[in-house]
Structure formats: structure tokens, C-alpha cells
Amino acid sequence: MARVEDIVVRGTLTADRPLDGLTWLRVGGPADWLFQPADEADLAAFLAALDPDVAVFPMGVGSNLIVRDGGIRAVVIRLGRGFNGIAIDGACVTAGAAALDAHVARKAAEAGRDLTFLRTIPGSIGGAVRMNAGCYGQYVADRLRSVRVVTRSGDVRVLSAADLALRYRQSDLPDGWVITGATFDAPAGDPAELTARMDEQLAKRDATQPTRDRTAGSTFRNPAGFSSTGRADDTHEMKAWALIDAAGMRGARVGGAQMSPMHANFMVNTGGATAADLESLGEEVRKRVFQNSGISLEWEIMRVGDSTAAQD
Hints:
The chain has 312 residues and is of the alpha+beta class. The chain has three domains: 4-81, Uridine Diphospho-n-acetylenolpyruvylglucosamine Reductase, domain 2 (2-Layer Sandwich), CATH 3.30.43; 83-193, Uridine Diphospho-n-acetylenolpyruvylglucosamine Reductase, domain 3; 213-304, UDP-N-acetylenolpyruvoylglucosamine reductase, C-terminal domain (Uridine Diphospho-n-acetylenolpyruvylglucosamine Reductase, domain 1). It is 24% helix and 25% strand. The strands form five sheets. The chain has a five-stranded antiparallel sheet with strand order 6-7-12-10-11. Strand 15 and strand 16 (266-269) form a beta hairpin.
């Protein structure tokens, strides 16, 4: 098997690539390597050639991610223009993994197809599938038909939605496998009505969430009241923001990190925050919530990498 630096690619392969500019929170150290494949064939050939002992980390647009200050000891794979196409054939909507959730929702609506729940979800389709993203009572699990993936060994496969075992903010996609596209079943709807619904959702989001700040979406998962497919059970649901509020942590700060005064479950980089600031604040929130309620919050933001830089 080849070393990373010996593999010939058609895309872009960069050593020691800083990742802070690629995440919404704007924090994090460098990846050992960043690979931006030209297309699926380029990705598959790279993974087939890569030493299996080298770790691989697929990264979307960094909308729900903290990269620690020491960076990532892996090849980070980030999909770009070769993976952002959207095709609509009747009720079947197929989108590349790099297509933005909001863009897919808009394109589907223009064609009279309802994927409006994607409109206010930050990030791209690959991440939405991997984490079974949802909003306004609908989840990826409700609409997903199949996904196209490249395995760690470079094989291209098509998986059914059932193969992923989607549940609340989780899936069973193996480590190192890269989603390259997804196909959804989208019911019919009137384009004008779908657009109006999305406009209403956007207005509601902007009125209740700090959309103009540097955040990574919801910091913690809602702790209870969800079925195996990710659907909320309103009779038992508890909201993470309410638990954080009750623990007195709305607006709490560590360095440049703050729990938003506008929405207690959103963590904000107010300027100059490190990944350590953000993670420390999150752990303090978890501690205070547990002391106040006996409930242990689970992170929804993915945290990856080393806390400190590797030593030579």
C-alpha cells in the first residue's frame, strides 16, 4: 500500500492543512493531509491505494464540528464541486453529498417536490444522512431511499436506508466510509406553497436562533423522548435548551466561547475562541445541568482531533 504522499490524484492533496477556516466555529488545528477529490473515481482510487493503517476522516462543510486545537492525525476528505449535483425524476430526488441541504430543499420545491424540512438544516447532504438530521418533525430517515458510498478500501456501493440503521442523530455507517450521494422520496406539493412554508420556517429560525453568529447548530442532543428512527415523542420530550436555562448557563462564557443569550443550546465563538474554550464551556454546561437535574447531556456537535499539537 502507498504512503499518502506517493498517491497520484486528480484532485487536490495538501499536507498540514489548517482546518479552522473550514468549520463554522472557525477553530482547530491542521490535518495531516486534506484530500479534495475531483470525483468519485478519484476518491475510490485514492482510498484503494492508501495504507489501511492511515486514518480517514470525511468532513462536510464543518457546520456541526469542533476540530481540536492540535488538529487531526488523519487524511481529512472534503468533497467539493464534483459532488454537489442535484437531479429530480418524479418523486426521486438525488443529491451529491456536498450539496447544501438548503439548496436541495429549494431545488426540490421548484420542481414541486417536498423536502422542505431540509431548508433550515445547516450543512450538506452527506452530513445530514450520517447524522439523520431533522427539523419540524421530519428526519432524513423519513425520506431517504438509498445512499452511495465509497468504502475505506475504495469499493463503491449503494446502501438502502435500512442498511444505515438511522436513529436520533446517529447511523451505523462504518468509520472511514465516505457518502458521495443520496436519493430521497419526495412527495408532491405546490411550488408556491412549499416556498411559503420554507420562508416561514426561515423567519421562525431567525427569530429564535443566533443565525448571524459563529455557531455549530445545536450543541447538545435532546436527552429523551425519541424513537429509534429519530422521531420525537412529544409526550416525553425534554429540551436541552430548557435544561441549560434551568441550570443558569444561558450566556455563560469560557474565554471567547459563550452559550448564546438568544438560544441556550447554541454555542458561539464571540471572537478569538479556541477549540479548548468551546469544549471546556460545553463540559461545564454538562456538569451544571447534571448537578441541577440529574440528566447527563450528550454532545450533538462532533469533536475530533488532538487537544495539543503533535510533538516532533
